[in-house]
Amino acid sequence: MDRGNRLGDIEITDPKAMRALAHPVRLAILERLQRHGPATATQLSPDVGATPSVASWHLRHLAGFGLVRDAEPGADRRERRWEAAARGFRFDMPEDDEGRSAARVLSREMFVHSADLPHRWVTETEPGLDAEWRRPAGLANTRVVVSAEELAAIEDAIESVLAPYVTRDAAQRPSGARGVRLLRYVLPEGTEEQTGEIA
Predict the structure, then answer these.
(1) What CA–CA distance (Å, rounded) separates 108 from 93?
(2) pLDDT tens digits, residue range 114-142?
(3) What residue ranges define each of the domains in the chain, with the CATH number in brackets?
(4) DSSP state, 128?
(5) Residue 38: CB atoms within 10 Å
(6) Which one of 55, 59, 153, 174 has the lowest number of neighbouring Cβ atoms within 10 Å?
(7) Which residues does residue 83 pair with via DSSP β-bridges, in sequence order?
(8) What is the distance of C-alpha 93 from the center of its chain?
(9) pTM for the model
(10) Helices 41-48 and 24-36, interaxial angle, to 10°?
């Protein structure tokens, strides 16, 4: 099933681009630009754990793969501002060995990059949330037994629900709206894990 790309993500197919993004500073830069908009290397530096010159080098590297680009100049036209080329990115597991290896490296780095996010949310953000935001927040851990085609259909349905919220203009957001991170891990089990299947 071709899920399409309703969310407007950059689709990464080049193994070299996958390996380029599989770096903690580059992932942090891209995430910061996607969440907060255009910035200079100097503005990014404290958030990504790199000096301005190192951040600038990583930005140019990401630009070489089309993941970031020059943004409109800010108040100081001498400073180079960067922006993410899209709201998000996606990649599939390629069939060839080089592509599979690169996708695994990027997947591992993304898991490591996001691993601390739930803990930080529970300790830093959740205690300060109003009840109206605490109620729908949280997590679920659901196991299903499906075919590969059914799993693709589930992912397609989730993206179908999310797309109008991801792609709408800022002017269309209701008052009181705020950013929400939806972490979605889709982790098929190995064949050896199929004992004790749910009915």
Answers:
(1) 13
(2) 898 889 999 999 999 999 999 999 888 89
(3) 1-115 (1.10.10.10), 119-199 (no CATH)
(4) G
(5) 17
(6) 174
(7) 69
(8) 16
(9) 0.81
(10) 120
